[in-house]
Specification:
The complex is a heterodimer. By secondary structure, chain A is mainly alpha-helical. Chain A has 29 helices and 7 strands. Chain B is built from 6 helices and 3 strands. Classes of the chains: A mainly alpha, B alpha+beta.
C-alpha cells in the first residue's frame, strides 16, 4: 500500500507542475460526463422519435392496406372488411417497402408481418360496425321519415296496453260465465218443469188413492154392519165381508204406495227448486261480476251502449226465468213447506201400514177398521195431506215461460241475422285472402351457404290460427242457433262463442308475452333501446323485403333488383298464399338447394326460416297480429262501431269479433300493397266514416275482393262525402317490419341472420373468382415490426446494427 | 512558459470555447431531431388524411361539385357538415381524378397538421424549427399512380447556430398511401 502511494505521488510530481493543466484537467473531468449525458439525451430523443415515426408509418401503411377493402360488402352492406383477393401481408409489405426510406436515417427493419383479425363473423365485431355505420345513416333516415323513437315507444306503450286488453278479456269471460249460468238456469227450469209435472201426476194419483181408500173403508164398514144386523156370527168368514176386506187391503196398499210416491216427488221437487234458486244466485253473481268488469274498462259509458247488449239479453232471459220460479213457489217458505209435507206423507204412509181390517187381533198401536168405525173418522184420521208448497199448474206455467223464451228471446230479426252472417263471411273471406306471400320470392336455402348452420325459427302462431278458426265457428254456431227458436241452444252457443273469444284474446296476450319480448326492456333501457333501434333500422333500410325487392335501394343506393337477378329470380304470382299455407309450411327446417334469398331478406331476419315463402307468410301473420293488438283499443273506443254493435243487440259480440279479426287484416292487406297505415288509429274501417275511407282507399288494392267490399258496404253504411283518415304515425310495410324487429328479435338473432345474408350474397357474387369465407372478412389488421435504431453517425463500426432494438405491435382497423 | 503565470488563462481560453462549441453542436443535433420529427409527423398525417378524401367524396353527393340537389337526406347532411369543416382537413373536390392540384391539397393538409390551418403560424413554426424559408421553403410533389398518392417533400434544414449560413442540411421524405375508394 505504501508503495502504491509513493508511486502515485511520484507520478503527479512528474506530470503536474504546479497549476499547469489544472483548469484543463478540471474541465475534462467535469465537462466530459456532462457532454456524455447530453449525448445520451439526444440519442434518447432520437429513439423516441424513431418509435413515434415508426408507429405513424406503420399506421399509415396499415391504412393503405385496409384501403383494399371488399367492394361488394361495402357497396351492398355498407360494411368494411379487407378484400380476400390478395394476401394482407403482401399488400402491407408492398406499401411498407415504398415508405420505409422515409425512416432510413433512424430505423432499420428486420421483420415485419401483418395479419387480419376481428372478422365480421364475430358477432360483436359485426354489431359494432353496424352500430358505427347506423348511428348516422339510420338516424338520418329515420329522422327523414319522421320516425321519433321516443314518441313511437310512448305511443306503443299506450297502444299495447296489456292491462286494458286483459280487462276486455275479463269482460268477455264474465259474459261467457253469465251466459253459461243462464243456460244452466234454463236447463234447471226445464227439469223443474218435468219434476213439477211428475209431482202433479203423483199428487193426483195420491188424492185418487185416498178417495178410493175412503170408499173401500166405507164399503167394508157397511157390509160389516149389515151382516151384524143379520145375525151372522162369524163375520169375517162371510164371503162378502171377506171380499170387502181384500178390496180394502188393496186400497190401503195403493194409498200407501201413492203416498210414498208423492213423498218422493215432493223431495225431488224440493231439490230441483233449490237447484233452480242456486242457479239463479249464480246468474245474479255473474251479472254482478260482469258489471264490475265493465266498470274497470276505460270509457265505461261507451261500453254500456254496446258490449252490454249481449249481457242484457242474458239478464232479461234470466229475469223471466226468475219470475216464473217466484210465481210457482214461495222462495221464502217452499223448503219448510215441502219438508213438512213430506214428513206428514211419510207419517201417513207409516200409519197406513198399521191398519188392521180383517178382524184379527189388532195388537197395540195399530189402527183398526171394523164395524164400529165410521167414514168421517177415517177421513179425518187419514186426511189428504195439504200440498200447496208449489203452485198447482206450475209445470204449465214454466212450460209457457220456456216456450215464450224459445219463441221470443232466442232469436233476432232475420235481417240482423243475415247481416251478422255476412259480417262473419267478411271475416272468413278476409282471413282466407291469398296475400300471405309474393310467389316470386320462393327460395329454399341450402344449409351449406348459411354461416349460422342452425337457424331457429320463432313461429308461435299455430295456437292463434286454431283459436281464430274456433272463434269463427263459434260465432257461426251462435248465429245459427239464434234462428232455431231454442233458448237453451242459443245460450249454450253464446257461452261457447264467448269462451272462444276469451281463448282467442288469451292466445293474443300469450303472443304479446312471447313475441314482443323487447317491449319492456326498450321502455326501461335507454342505451340498449337505441342500439336495438339502430340494428333494426340497419336491417330495414339495407335489406330488401317483399315490397321493395323490385325497385327499392339500400341507404347507400344499392339496387335490390341486383340481388333478385343474381339469384336468378323471375316474377311470378305477386299475391298468393293464405293462412292454411302458413300452417302447412310450419316445418321450416327442411333443407333446400337455393344459394340465397331473392328479396325477402328483412323477413328472414325477423323469422329465420330457410323457406323464403314461410318467412313472408309468418311476417304477414305477425304484422296481422301486431295490428290486431294495436287495433283492439281503438275499435272498442270507436263510438260508431259501438252503435253498430249495439244495433246487433244480442249478436253484438259477433260484430266486435268480426271487427277485431277483420280490421287488422285490412290493414295488413293495405301494407303489402305498398300503402301506409296509421300505427295508432282514430278512424277504424269498421265504422260509418271508416267504411267510406276504406271504399276510397281500396280501389286498387289486391286482396280486397268486390265480394268483401260489397258485404262490408251492405253491413256498414258508409258516410257520404270524403272522410278523414285520422290517426298517428302513418307507416308502411317496411316500417312495420322495423317495429316488429325492434320489439321481437333479439340482437343476437338479428346479427346471426345478417351474417347468413352477407355470407350467401357475397359467396354468390364471388363464385367465379374465389371461395369467399365470412371468417376471413377481417376488419382489423395486426402489425408486428422488429428492427433497430440506426446510429447517429454513419461510421463503419456502428452502422451494422444500432445499440437499441425496437419492437412494435399495432392494430389498424375500420 | 517556465512560470505558471497566465497558464490558467491560456488553458481556459483554449478549452472553454471548445466545450461550449461541443454543447451547441449537440443542441443543434437535438433541434434537427425535433424538426425532422415534426415535419415527418405532419407529412404522414397529411398523406393519411388525403388518402381518405376520395372515399367521402365518392359516397357523399356534393352540391358544390355537381351543382345538383343531393340525392338523399344523408348526403345533404354530410355535405353540409363537411362544408362547415376547415378546408385544411377535408376536401369535397375530386382532385384525385386527374392528380392535378394534389400537391396543393397535400400542402393545405400539411399546414393543417403543422399549425391547425394557419399558414402564417405554420411559416413561423417551420422557421423556428430551422426549415429554410419556412413553408415556402418546402417543395411538395404529389403524384397519383395506380390508385396511390406518392408525396415527396424537399427542404433544407438549417443548423441551429449557423453563424456563417453554411450549415444547411438538405432533407427529402417520401410517403406513399393508397387512395380509398379509387
Amino acid at each position: 500500500m505504501k508503495n502504491f502511494i509513493k508511486k502515485s505521488v511520484a507520478f503527479f510530481n512528474v506530470h503536474i507542475n504546479g497549476y499547469k493543466g489544472a483548469v484543463s484537467l478540471l474541465l475534462i473531468l467535469t465537462m466530459l460526463p456532462m457532454m456524455t449525458a447530453a449525448l445520451l439525451v439526444v440519442e434518447s430523443a432520437r429513439y423516441q422519435n424513431a418509435i413515434q415515426s415508426l408507429d405513424e408509418m406503420l399506421d399509415c401503411v396499415g391504412l393503405s392496406s385496409i384501403a383494399d377493402y371488399d367492394k361488394y360488402i361495402e357497396d351492398r352492406f355498407d360494411l368494411l372488411a379487407v378484400s380476400q383477393k390478395k394476401s394482407i401481408n403482401t399488400t402491407f409489405n408492398d406499401y411498407l417497402q415504398r415508405n420505409l426510406p422515409a425512416l432510413k436515417n433512424v430505423y432499420t427493419s428486420s421483420t415485419t408481418n401483418a395479419e387480419g383479425c376481428l372478422p365480421l363473423s364475430e358477432t360483436a365485431v359485426l354489431k359494432e360496425q353496424i352500430l358505427d355505420y347506423s348511428e348516422l345513416s339510420v338516424g338520418i333516415e329515420t329522422f327523414y321519415e319522421g320516425f321519433n323513437i321516443d314518441e313511437l315507444l310512448s305511443k306503443l306503450q299506450e297502444a299495447i296496453g296489456l292491462g286494458d286488453i286483459n280487462k276486455y278479456m275479463d269482460t268477455a269471460s264474465g259474459a261467457a260465465d253469465l251466459a253459461t249460468a243462464a243456460s244452466d238456469l234454463i236447463t234447471e227450469l226445464k227439469e223443474l218443469k218435468e219434476k213439477s209435472s211428475d209431482y202433479e201426476t203423483k199428487k193426483s194419483e195420491y188424492e185418487q188413492a185416498a178417495d178410493d181408500f175412503y170408499e173401500k173403508s166405507d164399503s167394508l164398514i157397511s157390509i160389516l154392519r149389515s151382516k151384524t144386523e143379520s145375525g151372522v156370527d162369524d163375520l169375517y168368514s162371510d164371503s162378502e165381508v171377506s171380499q170387502k176386506v181384500n178390496d180394502l187391503k188393496t186400497g190401503i196398499t195403493t194409498f200407501k204406495d201413492k203416498t210414498g210416491a208423492l213423498s218422493d216427488a215432493t223431495k225431488s221437487l224440493k231439490e230441483k227448486v233449490s237447484s233452480c234458486f242456486s242457479k239463479l244466485s249464480d246468474v245474479t253473481e255473474k251479472a254482478g261480476s260482469l258489471q264490475r268488469s265493465y266498470e274497470q274498462i276505460p270509457g265505461t259509458t261507451l261500453q254500456d251502449q254496446c258490449t252490454t247488449s249481449t249481457s242484457e239479453w242474458v239478464v232479461i232471459v234470466a229475469d223471466e226465468a226468475t219470475d216464473v220460479l217466484n210465481e210457482v213457489v214461495d222462495r221464502g217458505s217452499y223448503a219448510s213447506n215441502m219438508d213438512t209435507q213430506k214428513s206428514r206423507l211419510d207419517d201417513q204412509k207409516s200409519k197406513l201400514s198399521r191398519i188392521k181390517c180383517d178382524g184379527s187381533d189388532p195388537g197395540q198401536n195399530n189402527y183398526v177398521i171394523d164395524v164400529s168405525s165410521n167414514r168421517s173418522d177415517i177421513e179425518r184420521d187419514f186426511s189428504k195431506i195439504n200440498t200447496n208448497a208449489i203452485r198447482n199448474n206450475a209445470s204449465s206455467l214454466i212450460d209457457g215461460t220456456v216456450s215464450d223464451l224459445d219463441n221470443n228471446r232466442s232469436t233476432i230479426e232475420e235481417n240482423t241475422r243475415a247481416d251478422m252472417g255476412k259480417l262473419l263471411d267478411v271475416a272468413v273471406e278476409l282471413l282466407g285472402v291469398q296475400l300471405f306471400y309474393d310467389g316470386s320470392l320462393d327460395s329454399k336455402i341450402s344449409s351449406n351457404v348459411l354461416f349460422q348452420t342452425n337457424p331457429e325459427m320463432s313461429l308461435t302462431n299455430t295456437l292463434i290460427t286454431d283459436a281464430i278458426t274456433k272463434v269463427l265457428d263459434g260465432g257461426r254456431g251462435f248465429i245459427e242457433a239464434l234462428g232455431e227458436f231454442n233458448i237453451l241452444k242459443a245460450l249454450k252457443s253464446l257461452a261457447e262463442f264467448l269462451v272462444g273469444i276469451v281463448e282467442f284474446i288469451a292466445s293474443i296476450v300469450t303472443w304479446i308475452g312471447e313475441t314482443l319480448i323487447n317491449l319492456a326492456t326498450l321502455l326501461t333501457s335507454g342505451s340498449e333501446m337505441f342500439k336495438t333501434f339502430l340494428l333494426s333500422g340497419y336491417c330495414i333500410y339495407n335489406l330488401p323485403c317483399r315490397t321493395t325487392f323490385e325497385s327499392g335501394k339500400s341507404i347507400s343506393g344499392y339496387s335490390y333488383k341486383k340481388i333478385f337477378d343474381m339469384f336468378e329470380g323471375t316474377i311470378g304470382n305477386r299475391f298468393t298464399g293464405c293462412l292454411d299455407d302458413l300452417k302447412n309450411m310450419a316445418d321450416g327446417s327442411e333443407d333446400g338447394t337455393d344459394l340465397g334469398f331473392k328479396g325477402a331478406e328483412s323477413e328472414y331476419v325477423l323469422i329465420g326460416s330457410k323457406n323464403e315463402l314461410l318467412n313472408q307468410s309468418a311476417t304477414f301473420f305477425n304484422i296481422y297480429l301486431f295490428r290486431l293488438v294495436l287495433d283492439i283499443i281503438p275499435l272498442f273506443k270507436n263510438e260508431q262501431l259501438s252503435a253498430i254493435a249495439g244495433a246487433a243487440n244480442v249478436a253484438s259480440w259477433v260484430v266486435w269479433l268480426v271487427a277485431i279479426l277483420a280490421e287488422p287484416m285490412i290493414d295488413t292487406i293495405m301494407l303489402v300493397n305498398g300503402q301506409e297505415e296509421n300505427l295508432i288509429k282514430e278512424t277504424v274501417y269498421f265504422s260509418y266514416s271508416g267504411n267510406n275511407v276504406l271504399m276510397h282507399r281500396a280501389a286498387n288494392i289486391t286482396g280486397l275482393s268486390d265480394s268483401v267490399k260489397s258485404k262490408l258496404s251492405d253491413s256498414i253504411t258508409a258516410e257520404n262525402g270524403n272522410a278523414d283518415y285520422k290517426g298517428f304515425l302513418p307507416m308502411n310495410y317496411q316500417e312495420h317490419l322495423l317495429i316488429l324487429l325492434l320489439l321481437t328479435a333479439s340482437p343476437t338473432e338479428m346479427l346471426a341472420r345478417i351474417q347468413d345474408l352477407i355470407n350467401m350474397e357475397t359467396k354468390e357474387y364471388y363464385k367465379d373468382d374465389f371461395d369467399f369465407s365470412l371468417t376471413n372478412t377481417y376488419t382489423n389488421i395486426k402489425i408486428e415490426s422488429n428492427g433497430t435504431l440506426n446510429s447517429m453517425f454513419d461510421l463503419e463500426l456502428l452502422t451494422a446494427d444500432g445499440p437499441f432494438s425496437i419492437s412494435r405491435k399495432r392494430f389498424v382497423g375500420y | 512558459m517556465k512560470d505558471t503565470k497566465g497558464s490558467v488563462m491560456l488553458e481556459t481560453s483554449i478549452f472553454l470555447p471548445l466545450f461550449i462549441f461541443l454543447f451547441l453542436f449537440l443542441f443543434g443535433l437535438f433541434s434537427i431531431v425535433i424538426a425532422q420529427n415534426e415535419v415527418n409527423h405532419a407529412l404522414i398525417q397529411s398523406s393519411k388524411s388525403v388518402s381518405l378524401d376520395p372515399y367521402l367524396a365518392e359516397h357523399v353527393d356534393s352540391i358544390e361539385e355537381s351543382k345538383e340537389f343531393w340525392s338523399n337526406f344523408g348526403s345533404m347532411f354530410l355535405d353540409i357538415v363537411r362544408s362547415s369543416n376547415d378546408a385544411h382537413f377535408s376536401s369535397s373536390s375530386d382532385w384525385y381524378e386527374t392528380g392535378s392540384g394534389a400537391s396543393t391539397v397535400v400542402k393545405d393538409r400539411f399546414v393543417g397538421y403543422i399549425s391547425g390551418g394557419d399558414e402564417n403560424k405554420a411559416n413561423e413554426k417551420l422557421k423556428k424549427l430551422g426549415v429554410e424559408n419556412g413553408l415556402n421553403g418546402i417543395l411538395f410533389i404529389s403524384n397519383i399512380n395506380d390508385g396511390n398518392i406518392e408525396t415527396t417533400i424537399k427542404y433544407n434544414l438549417k443548423f441551429w447556430f449557423n453563424i456563417f449560413d453554411i450549415g444547411k442540411i438538405p432533407m427529402e421524405q417520401t410517403i406513399v398511401s393508397k387512395l380509398w375508394g379509387v
